[in-house]
Design goal:
By secondary structure, the protein is of the alpha+beta class. It has helices spanning about 1-25, 25-130, 140-150, 155-180, 235-250, 260-270, 270-275, 285-305, 310-325, 325-335, 340-350, 355-375, 380-410, 415-484; strands at about 180-190, 195-200, 205-210, 215-220, 230.
Length: about 475
């Protein structure tokens, strides 16, 4: 305000002489100037006084305002600290809330996994490990636990309760299995009738006594049946002991150490003829081929075993006779040798005066005829060894085809129904290999035996040819020397 007034006065001082100059004479102007100066001086004094007053007022008000500003600044700092504290607290609460949400989500996932997976797997394992006699006893808690997840009207707590009740039942079962337990139930007797009675279980073993007292024995599961089956005892002592245990809960428990496997194994035993019959129609050519190959092998073995071979002494004696050029002695000693080798040598010495090439051809002809005779019927054994696995493979294919036909009609649930086709597929392959392997070995043995005879003939033929050639050379040399 003071500065604006001063500026205004200065403007008036500058503008006033110009106005005076334009309207009045110089004297009036001077007088007006003095008056204006006095007015300005007065106004300036007032302004200065007012300025001092304002300064005093400002000075008087500055201290409390500074104090108030300091107080406000302190309050602001405190408010900022409180804000920072509240912000940190809010962040901490937000972090805790997020952690809590994650923890709740994790616990929900654990509860879901526990309910849907672990408990479900436990229920399946518990049911699979139950003895066939216990299924009736634990059917209700099992069904309640299995159907709890599928029942949409139940809460999570009720589902969890139904599942944990089964765990309690399984713990009680474990306690009962250690000390033995008795409970009522129904079982199928040997005639196929379902009869009520009492079960006694100790560990994995169970026995049953019907209420009428007629059926007593071990309890097992029959294939394709969900009811326990009673296998009667054959020994009277076992029957008496079982009755005492079931009636009083004390006594000797007639335990089957194989847990019923002995009965199962006994029922699967079959004679060789029954086993062959399961192979189907392909077994006929396999068995025929096996019999024929065996007969041929026996015949060839006897025929080859009785082939006579010359001794080394006889061969040496013949070679000495050839060296001495005694034709009668040579024919005599060659005729004394029996068997195909003797026949070959006898034929050869009959042409001893002929060229050696002719003697070789004559003896080689005997070797060829003997080889054909010795190897006769051996290819049939080789054919049997090669054909038997193919027939077994044919039986395998037909058995599998029959199996798929049965699957089409009855489905794949009944394994016993499918066992016929599977047995045919496997048994034919089994007998095909049983025929093929011995046939292959017999063919190799007989072929080697026949080849050994041929080798002996070739060895004897080479020996006699060499001796004839050597003898002829020795008798020609002195003649050539005397002519010189």
């Amino acid at each position: 305000m003071i500065k604006m007034k001063n500026v205004f006065i200065l403007v008036l001082l500058v503008a006033n002489p110009m106005l005076l100059t334009a309207q009045e004479p110089t004297q009036k102007a001077e007088k007006s100037f003095e008056q204006a100066a006095e007015s300005v001086q007065q106004q300036l004094g007032e302004s200065v006084a007012e300025l001092n007053k304002l300064r005093e007022q400002i000075a008087a008000e500055k201290v409390p305002l500074s104090q108030k500003a300091d107080e406000l600044e302190s309050e602001l700092i405190e408010v900022r600290l409180e804000y920072q504290k509240a912000t940190r607290l809010l962040d901490s609460r937000t972090l805790d809330l997020n952690n809590m949400r994650n923890e709740i989500k994790s616990r929900q996932q654990e509860a879901t996994y526990l309910t849907n997976n672990l408990f479900g797997e436990y229920i399946r394992n518990f049911e699979s490990r139950l003895h066939i006699a216990e299924i009736q006893r634990y059917r209700e808690p099992l069904e309640a636990a299995k159907l709890a997840l599928e029942n949409s009207s139940l809460s999570e707590r009720e589902i969890y309760k139904a599942q944990t009740e089964l765990i309690s039942v399984s713990l009680e079962r474990l306690h009962d299995a250690l000390g033995g337990t008795r409970f009522d139930g129904k079982a199928v007797d040997s005639s196929g009738l379902v009869k009520p009675g009492t079960f006694v279980m100790i560990g994995p073993a169970a026995i049953f006594l019907s209420n009428d007292g007629e059926n007593i024995g071990t309890v097992q599961q029959r294939l394709g049946s969900l009811e326990p089956a009673v296998i009667p005892y054959e020994d009277e002592r076992d029957i008496v002991a079982a009755r005492e245990v079931i009636a009083t809960g004390k006594g000797r428990f007639p335990l089957d150490t194989t847990l019923g496997n002995a009965h199962v194994i006994e029922s699967t035993k079959q004679t060789l003829w029954e086993h062959i019959q399961k192979g189907g129609p392909v077994m006929v050519p396999i068995l025929v081929m096996a019999g024929a190959a065996l007969l041929v092998a026996i015949y060839k073995w006897f025929s080859l075993a009785f082939v006579q071979k010359p001794s080394s002494k006889q061969l040496s004696s013949l070679l000495q006779a050839v060296s001495a050029r005694d034709e009668k002695d040579i024919i005599k000693k060659a005729g004394a040798i029996k068997g195909p080798i003797g026949k070959m040598l006898a034929t050869g010495v009959q042409h001893i005066k002929e060229p050696t090439e002719l003697i070789e051809e004559v003896m080689f002809e005997i070797v060829l005829s003997t080889r054909l005779r010795l190897q006769r019927l051996l290819p049939f054994i080789a054919i049997s060894a090669a054909s038997a696995p193919l027939l077994g493979l044919l039986g395998t294919v037909t058995g599998i085809i029959n199996t798929f036909k049965l699957i089409t009609v009855f489905g794949s649930g009944d394994v016993k129904t499918l066992s016929g086709g599977i047995s045919e597929a496997l048994i034919t392959t089994e007998f095909g290999l049983i025929v093929a392997i011995p046939s292959l070995l017999l063919h190799a043995f007989l072929s080697r035996k026949a080849k050994s005879i041929i080798d002996e003939m070739e060895k004897a033929a080479v020996a006699i040819i060499n001796q004839i050639t050597k003898t002829r050379h020795e008798h020609k040399t002195p003649v050539a020397q005397s002519s010189k």
